Amino acid sequence: MATISIAEPPRPAPARPRLNYLTEKTGLMSWLFTTDHKRIGLLYVLSITFFFFFGGFFALLMRLHLLLPQGWLFGHETYNKLFSMHGIMMVWFFLIPSIPNTLGNFVLPMMIGAKDLAFPKLNLLSWYIFMLGGLTTLYALVRGGVDTGWTFYTPFSTSYSTTFVIAAAVGILIAGFSSILTGLNFIATVHRMRAPGLTWYRLPIFIWSTYATSLILVLATPVLAITLAMIAIERVFQVGIFDPALGGDPVLFQHMFWFYSHPAVYIMVLPAMAVVSEIIPTFSRKPIFGYKAVAFSSMAIAIIGFLVWGHHMFVAGESAYAAMTFSLLSYMVAIPSAIKVFNWTATMYKGSVQLDTPMLYAIGFVALFTIGGMTGLFLAALGIDVHVTDTYFVIAHFHYIMVGGTVMAFLGGVHYWWPKISGKMYPEFLAKLSALTVFLGFNLTFFPQFILGYMGMPRRYAAYPPEFQVLNVLSTAGASILGVGYVVPLIYLIWAWKYGERAPDNPWRTTGLEWKTPSPPPKHNFDVTPIVTWNAYDFEAQKEELQLG
Amino acid sequence: MMPTCLALLLQGSVTREYNVFFWVMVALCGAVGTGIAAFLVYCAWHYRRRSPNELPPQISMNIPAEVTWIAVPALIFISMFAYGLKMYFDLERPPDNSEDVYVVARQWMWKTQHLGGQREIDTLHVPVGRAIRLNMISQDVIHSFFIPAFRIKQDVLPGRYTSIWFKAVVPGTYHLFCAEYCGTEHSQMIGWIYAMNPKDYQIWLQQGAAEGSLASTGEKLFHQFGCSNCHHFSGHGRGPNLRGLYMRPVQITTGQTVVADETYIRESILQSRAKIVQGFQPIMPTFQGQLSEEQVAALIAYLKAIGPAPGEEMPSGPGEEMGDYGGIRPDLSEPVAPATKPGAR
Amino acid sequence: MADPSVLALREQFRNPEQQRETSTVGMWIFLVTEVMLFGGLFTAFSVYRMSHPAGFDQGSADMEFWLGAINTAVLICSSFTMAMAVHSSETGKKSRLAVFLLLTILIGLVFLVIKFTEYYLHYHDQKLPGILFHDTSPDAAYVQMFFVFYFLMTGLHAFHMIVGEGVLCAMLIRTWLGSFSERYHTPIELAGLYWHFVDTVWVFLFAIFYIPGAHLK
């Protein structure tokens, strides 16, 4: 049954207020033509949930196939298409939009005391463009999929693959414009729509990290668009931009691709860090430790993240001097991430810690992101990377960050802001159980893959030598558990939307402007624009209001 | 079959150094990770909320702590970088006495050619204790040559040569994998490295080469395709003298200076107009489509083999600048030194 | 007549000033993304130009230098008329605003006509990359590469011009409908920013495609 967290004093259920953003207008058209950032956030929730389970389903199929060394479920061509579509859907249609377009859209204007984003219609257009890109990619899937990997390396993707590369590339290109418009919207909003008194150094870290993410979105994504366009043009007109047979340089493609795709991984992780930076102070009842260090680290990650793309190409044929530079810079980008981990941990120190579900996900994030990040240190070392690059070691590394990191943070954020978004509470016990299932399932799935990579199992293999089987079986077992851990929240959250216990305005009794609105909020968030005179996470200043101390 | 597992076996010359570095990092990162995890658990337990309205002390800043946890990781990272760099540079520079092997990759097989002319498919026999330098090129898409036991990997590209070296230390049979996704049968583009005792290797070599050494194949091609008509070793020719070409700096007509490595030689054969040596005319026909990658490799092996004999200096004389090929001035005036016999390399 | 700035005020903004500032920030960010978009192509072009200067010079020599030069002058004129349009809007001179917008549109059309004429000439000379390409110079593969970038980059630019023409037409219509005044003319300013950006991109395109080979004719 639904329960509010145990340490809460009983509070009277708030009277159902006047219309909120969900009830002020109903009907399909009011959703399809909405300009309300909160509704658009929910539209995105529907889209990315669909792509998450679709991409996840493909992952499950792959893991089942890999139970046997020579495979059994699929032919090699089909397997290759599965990992390609898994990567494409997960990267561009789940991870990149997940936190920014769902939680970011919903919460960002509220956190800064604004009525909406700077450009609400552009926000809706972003969603439509995203859906158009998604449908185009699904078209490629339905026509047979692509087998190039999500990385589209040339000349295979331009001159050898017989699959629907153009449709997939165009679909991603279109979705990229959705990213760009979102980033543009967020940057303009943070610059110009903050409530009076809300200076930069009073902003929650969520805003700093989302702002840093938006910088990457607007600067990096256009390069991806042009790179994919060149692939498509090469295929259509049979000119050799990246094909050595026609004078092109396949390694140039890699430079251009990774120039976007490395910052892209920071698009995926910075919003997760943003969420965690809100959850941990709330459930420790203290401000984030080292506020300025954490804020500047977000910016440093975004900036330095543009300078390290060549670490994906240490054995690809780049010069030793380029490799050396990229290796050094890759270590430098690890420093702000380490700063954040230490500061999150220090936030809990001498705090008042409550292990509600969002906090479980946040702590899980810190642990798993740390492991993933540390394995990044291995990959940044040139001599080590030579052996483990292009193996399961890399797969384990990035899944620790993207799944152990971003997905956990996303789930944590969903649970954290669920009461605000839906006006209901989720079932706490079941949620905690799911979080634990996800954590255990995840580690069982991906930790064996570090070992597999070290032992030499290459990635993207539809069949493998028998000595790798035991670890593969363990990984598949973990994947099934992980799958359950994801499906259960889907079910209880849908249930809770309708039948969950009514949520108070501020169930976690935390600071933050978004919690000063009703749950769910009215369409325009604030009846009166707040005037901010306090710092972020200032429990001391708000202790009267929150009945603390 | 040797298992490539977690023990400190020294299958290849870098395996031990690699493993030590790797496991030291595992220990270090493991300690830090465990520490952080333990601290998280400790805080979650020791500082658990004891009453609903509790407000803990609002400490949120400690400059010495921040400085420490920036400086200490930075120093550790620099050391990791430095050692990784050292290992990498070692991999970039094959020892002087390394033996060349040519590798041609294609979907979905590895074709290896020894200098003695022995050819293999999906296998490579090597003697232990000898550094082997692989010169690799692809006929189609990007592949990657990966021997886990020796801790080496290098992408194999179409259109230019890439290179990696290794030295087997322990005799045995080791996996060879393609490590860059290359299409449907990428997972089947695998094979074996047979590292043999020198005696066994000599025996194996005897059974090989029907057509003679790679360089002699190259020599036959050099004449068969008419290269010798223009590229004279002993006198003026319409083309540059190719003796001692390998790894020479060459000045081309744009004024740039390039080094005549394998990729340059291959480009000069297949796209002969791309770079013209200073002082020569662009009259060389292109052999694109007429020569396979294996034949190009044979020609390169031949050109490498006819370098100056050890200890023999290149003839000097007026106009002996970079790229004039041993004193032969491109305006076809008198050669300044008598031709030397093709020396053994 | 109601104050256009009040009419135009969107509900998420507190006052017209905030709306104007925010919209301007938005347009500048958009232009930065455009720099990155073209930047990717400029970078790839530079890489190939540095590795194969002969082929690229030959390709540049095949360009019609004077058509490019005229087009550059044409676009600069259009930027001038656009600037005059913005100035007219700032001083509330609505009929002048309309005239300058119209002039900008027409001059922009001249550019596009010349551009597409050049494309036709290239097609005629068999310089269209792909199966229709034919070239006998020694470095033909890189002459073709030059033309791949030429068509890609000038094509992308022409696309931006066409969109710009559409935007200016919309501005013209809104001017006739009386949407603007000296108190509210932000869309004109933003359209001006966009137009100047497109003009600047062309100057760089002219520099990399037309100028290098001009001396080889």
Q: Based on Cα principal axes, name the global outline of chain A.
A: globular
Looking at the overall shape, the CATH architecture of chain C is: Up-down Bundle
CATH architecture field of chain A:
Up-down Bundle
What is the number of strand segments of chain C? 0
CATH class of chain C: Mainly Alpha
Level of helix content of chain A?
Answer: 55-70%
Q: What sort of overall outline of chain C do the alpha carbons produce when their principal axes are compared?
A: elongated
Total number of helices of chain C: 7
Q: Mind telling me the CATH superfamily name of chain C?
A: Cytochrome c oxidase, subunit III, four-helix bundle
**For this structure, what is the CATH homologous superfamily of chain A?**
Cytochrome c oxidase-like, subunit I domain
Report the CATH topology name of chain A: Cytochrome C Oxidase, Chain A
Largest interface: A-B, 97 and 85 residues
Class derived from helix and strand content of chain C: mainly alpha
Terminus-to-terminus distance of chain C: 61 Å
Task: Count the DSSP helices of chain A.
Answer: 16
Uncertain runs of chain A are 1-6
Helix content of chain C: over 70%
**What is the domain tally of chain C?**
1
How big is the Rg of chain C? 20 Å
- Counting DSSP E segments of at least 2 residues, the number of strands of chain A comes to 0
Structure description:
The complex is a heterotrimer of chains A (549), B (345) and C (217). Chain A is mostly helical. Chain A has helices spanning 28-32, 37-65, 76-111, 120-142, 156-160, 165-192, 205-237, 250-282, 291-304, 320-348, 357-380, 382-388, 392-422, 428-455, 469-499, 543-546. Chain B has 2 domains: 1-45 and 94-211, Cupredoxins -  blue copper proteins (Immunoglobulin-like, Sandwich); 214-305, Cytochrome c-like domain (Cytochrome Bc1 Complex, Chain D, domain 2, Orthogonal Bundle). Chain B contains 7 helices and 12 strands. In chain B, the strands form 3 sheets. Chain B has a 5-stranded mixed β-sheet with strand order 3-2-1-5-8, with helices on one face. Chain B has a 5-stranded mixed β-sheet with strand order 4-10-9-6-7. Chain B is elongated, with a radius of gyration of 28 Å. The two termini of chain B are 36 Å apart. Chain C is mainly α and 217 residues long. Chain C has a single domain, classed as Up-down Bundle (Four Helix Bundle (Hemerythrin (Met), subunit A)). Chain C is built from 7 helices and no strands. Chain C has helices at residues 4-7, 16-51, 53-61, 65-90, 94-124, 140-176, 186-209. Chain C is elongated. Chains A and B meet through helix 3, helix 10, helix 11, helix 12 and helix 14 of A and helix 1, helix 2, strand 7 and strand 9 of B.
